[in-house]
Write a structure and sequence with these properties.
By secondary structure, this protein is an alpha+beta fold. 64% of the residues lie in helices and 11% in strands. Helix 2 (38-50) packs across helix 3 (54-73) and helix 7 crosses helix 8. It is elongated, with a radius of gyration of 25 Å.
């Protein structure tokens, strides 16, 4: 029962994401000829050159890609993209005349960029969280990945870049700049919503002064630590390193203190987007600082 409810919630989230993308596309991208890549970008080019409805181009383009995907990849690997492609095409078709009713005109391209980037980012995040995609050129990306070993992200980047370059020849360099800013803002929003904001740093510390460093972390930074036994690759020496998670605002202080204690220390610093549980200063036993 819970599994069925989760599937229904995910599908509802997917539909909301599709609706948001479709409305944003028809309100802002189509009237302004913003070619942001994918089959939707091609549909804008075709509308400008041949006056073909964007939903018609989306339908034909996505059906063609679906057929290619089924032939090359098989129905199983293509199914997730089929659902996304068909529902996105339907969403664009149902909202194609939305400007007749809403008639939204922002005062500057800058406001358009922010609005499109943020709304695309939120809509895409909804779809990703639900476990779906919008299909389209994603199918080509998967083909290049499965058949030719190209990384999926790299394949999609090349495909979308070619579509955007084509749009640049037709609509000019201003469209290219606007499109790049939209895509950058969209990916930033998706990253922030999916991964979250990094408010902590993870430090791996290899030093001859580990005891002094541990004392400083626990008493001054007020953070827990973990001690990890490692074997060095060059000399095959067995020695401990320590790992700790500290608030972002304290990591510079810690780094500078470590270097002050041991100029030969080896420190690796990573972003931590989520931290659950663990040991803080007030849970540490007084007699021992080690955690294995």
């Amino acid at each position: 029962m819970k599994k069925a409810n989760k599937k229904m919630i995910n599908f509802a989230l997917f539909l909301l994401g599709i609706l948001l993308l479709s409305i944003t596309f028809n309100i802002f991208c189509v009237p302004n000829n913003y070619v942001t890549g994918g089959v939707s970008g091609i549909s804008i080019i075709f509308k400008y050159l041949f006056d073909i409805d964007v939903s018609a181009t989306l339908l034909v383009g996505n059906l063609l890609l679906i057929v290619i995907g089924i032939i090359v990849l098989g129905i199983k690997d293509t199914t997730p993209s089929i659902i996304g492609a068909l529902f996105y095409t339907l969403g664009v078709y149902l909202t194609e005349n939305i400007n007749t009713y809403l008639n939204i005109h922002l005062s500057s391209p800058f406001l358009n960029i922010i609005t499109i980037g943020v709304l695309f980012g939120i809509g895409s995040t909804m779809i990703y969280l639900a476990g779906y995609s919008t299909g389209g050129t994603d199918i080509l990306g998967i083909i290049f990945n499965k058949k030719y070993g190209m990384e999926l992200g790299q394949a999609l980047l090349i495909i979308n870049a070619l579509i955007i370059i084509l749009g640049t020849f037709i609509f000019g360099i201003e469209m290219l700049i606007i499109t790049l800013l939209i895509r950058f803002l969209e990916s930033t929003v998706v990253d922030k919503l999916l991964i979250g904001k990094s408010d902590s740093k993870v430090l791996f510390i290899n030093s001859e002064k580990l005891e002094e460093i541990k004392e400083f972390i626990i008493h001054e930074i007020k953070s827990g630590i973990s001690e990890i036994k490692v074997t060095t690759g060059f000399n095959q020496d067995k020695k401990p390193i320590i790992m700790c998670v500290v608030p972002t605002e304290k990591y510079l202080l810690l780094k500078e203190k470590i270097i002050e204690m041991d100029k030969g220390a080896f420190i690796t610093i990573l972003d931590a987007y989520e931290v659950y549980g663990g040991t803080n200063r007030y849970k540490l036993p007084l007699h021992d600082f080690r955690m294995y």
